[in-house]
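Researcher: Here's my situation. A collaborator sent me these components and asked whether they could plausibly form a single complex. I don't have experimental data yet, so a predicted model of the whole assembly would be a useful starting point for our discussion.
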Amino acid sequence: MTAQSPITQDVLTLPRKTEEGAKRNLVGLSRAQMRDALIEIGTPERQAKMRVGQVWAWIYQRGVRDFADMTNLSKAFRADLAEHFVIEVPQVVTRALSEDGTRKYLLRIAGGHEVEAVYIPEEGRGTLCISSQVGCTLTCSFCHTGTQRLVRNLTAGEIVGQVMVVRDDLGEWPAPGRNPHDETRLLSNVVLMGMGEPLYNFDNVRDAMKIVMDGEGISLSRRRITLSTSGVVPEIARCAEEIGCLLAVSFHATTDEVRDKLVPINRRWNIETLLGALREYPRLSNSERITFEYVMLNGVNDSDEDARRLVKLIEGIPAKINLIPFNPWPGAPYDRSSNNRIRAFADIVYKAGYASPIRTPRGEDIMAACGQLKSETQRERKSKRQIEAETGS
Ligand code: SAH
Ligand code: SF4
């Protein structure tokens, strides 16, 4: 992929919001919360469970956004729903389409904040990378999001809503009468690897993933969801017990000295403590191997010695090592390791018995990497403002 690759970038018209500020959004409510909400507007308690099932299926299995389309409900009930509730998902501000099929979305959420989501099609599957926070409280020195302060946590509705808008864009809500479980999914996997630290927004991430995993919801298996954490140790066991998805960990270094600098949360929970929590994870979550993410930074963490130390550290943990060539951003204090260095590192890890895939950069022509679309857009806007200021227009 070169910088000259053809790209398309649509600036989509945002649907106008009606004066519905007071209405409650049903997206992101747990089944219990939706039940209470329906009872509050007068649904008889004995009917509430059934009604939740019906509304839930319309929203999450069919992608319906208008209560009027919920044709198995009485007209009066549909009108009641429309009077009190909305079905609201993030708005697509821009969508960039890479020549390799990667789609990158800039999404606007309540308060005018923006987050990004990236859809990556692969052979026989498609992975959506979603965000959990606007910005991040952590300050990993190689990560562009780490230079932005935390603005706020996303709500459960905004997290599951990212999956819903991308299904809209892919046009993959099942047609009426078709069994949604039988679809070959374009969006078959979800990774929490966008902006933010998902374990610092635990409850909302959990509630959203419960909807994604719900057999009558988005209906993706828990093995198709991967949560990436920088190493929030106390929440790792909770993630196993309350979500049960696959876990990826931003490991990135093999000594505390280096990891303290790259992933500063290491000063709070060091490598040994982190590894202790990771050893417990597969048993607690009944899941398979843990993905160790390892960003390749030239001369910082990429030596043969590092590779050997890494395999020694993780001994006994069912693991896959995902080597990520560093994605540079303007002003970044690191360089990407050379391809030869990355291959030599991968080789040592592989020979020790671990899968060591090198992540191929996808969508480089649309800057589909951590934190980049948002910053680019902000820069464009800023320069537009600057131009306006300069020209006095
Ligand atoms: N906060 C979570 C999830 C979001 S970051 C975490 O840290 O795990 C998702 C992955 O992208 C992490 O492994 C992160 O370390 C990595 N990453 C961040 N910036 C990067 C960059 N510039 N180049 C390569 N990988 C990066
Ligand atoms: Fe936050 Fe993850 Fe970036 Fe670290 S790597 S600053 S935890 S988003």
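Model: Some features of this prediction you could bring to your collaborator: The chain has eleven helices and 14 strands. Confidence is low (pLDDT under 50) at residues 1-7, 11-18.
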